[in-house]
Amino acid sequence: MKKTSIKKFINWDVLNKVKNSRFSTNKDMHNLSKFLRELCVNMCIEGGDGHIPSSFSLIEIITFLYKKKLNINNKNLKNPNRDIFILSKGHGCLALYVNLYLKKFITRKDIFEFCKKDGILGEHPDTTKIKGVEACTGSLGHGLSFGAGIALGKKIQKQKGKVYVVVGDGECHEGTVWETANIAKNFKLNNLVYFIDWNQSAMQLLPHDKMVDKWKSFGWHTQLINGHSYMQLEKAIKKVESLQKTSASPSVIVCKTIKGKGTKILEGHGKWHHKIPNELEYTEILKQIKNYNYDR
């Protein structure tokens, strides 16, 4: 597809209003999700790279955390009592970048320069370049152990703040994930919360049909929810917060998601994992995002 500047397609006046808005209803948040999906697609077109479906499956999880939960802003990054967010599933970084833009960690110029030579936003998050990114990720499975180490450090130093890690279901084939699950339970890291982006992508090679039972067997407080429902995400995190007052065990929220959620053309189709749309596909994807019914 001939590259077209995203300046032409994104209503930046609307986005600037969104940056400072509070969203009180499920509908408000889903309207925001649609807008952020459009931005993700246009970033891929502009940069000629990226993983659109992988970002779409977790965009509600990340947006919920940044809009509703995380005690993080561009002025408190040296505060040891801040919350920590780690995207272990690094190739889903488009969903992270658009939220970092909303939180004013990165600029519109950075968005335009996704995957370009002089840009700071690459195909995986890089903490040495991007303000607000707490860990370099992309080598799957390591974000969890990194997050557990930070959570343990907070405990030792009696620091406030929680550690939230988003993990892909494919990562849960890595041995480091289950080593970390064991260690986190034994060290009583109740300040640690994992979100599993269970989009069934790994089912194509090696099924994870007992995902919930596996986490329970390691002694974690485990919930299973619809990862695209802001209402269920909010209910789940409130339950975690209640448990943290009385239990020393870590928590995991297994989120049933759909790879490519928001567009039928992308949903569940493996060929789109790292594909950049052509002109006809691009037009259809934006149309489907705009008309998507999240209640189905």
Topology, pairings included?
Blueprint: H1 12-19, H2 26-47, H3 52-56, H4 59-69, E1 84-87, H5 93-102, H6 108-112, H7 142-156, E2 163-168, H8 175-186, E3 192-198, H9 211-217, E4 221-226, H10 230-244, E5 251-256, H11 279-291
Parallel strand pairs: 1-2, 2-3, 3-5, 4-5
Helix pairs in contact: 2-4, 2-5, 2-11, 4-5, 7-8
What does this molecule look like?
By secondary structure, the protein is α/β, with parallel strands linked by helices. Helix 2 crosses helix 5, helix 2 (26-47) packs antiparallel against helix 11 (279-291) and helix 4 (59-69) runs parallel beside helix 5 (93-102). It is globular. It has a single domain, classed as Rossmann fold, CATH 3.40.50.970. The model has no long low-confidence stretch (mean pLDDT 89). The chain has a five-stranded parallel beta sheet with strand order 1-2-3-5-4, sandwiched between helices. It has helices at residues 12-19, 26-47, 52-56, 59-69, 93-102, 108-112, 142-156, 175-186, 211-217, 230-244, 279-291; strands at residues 84-87, 163-168, 192-198, 221-226, 251-256.
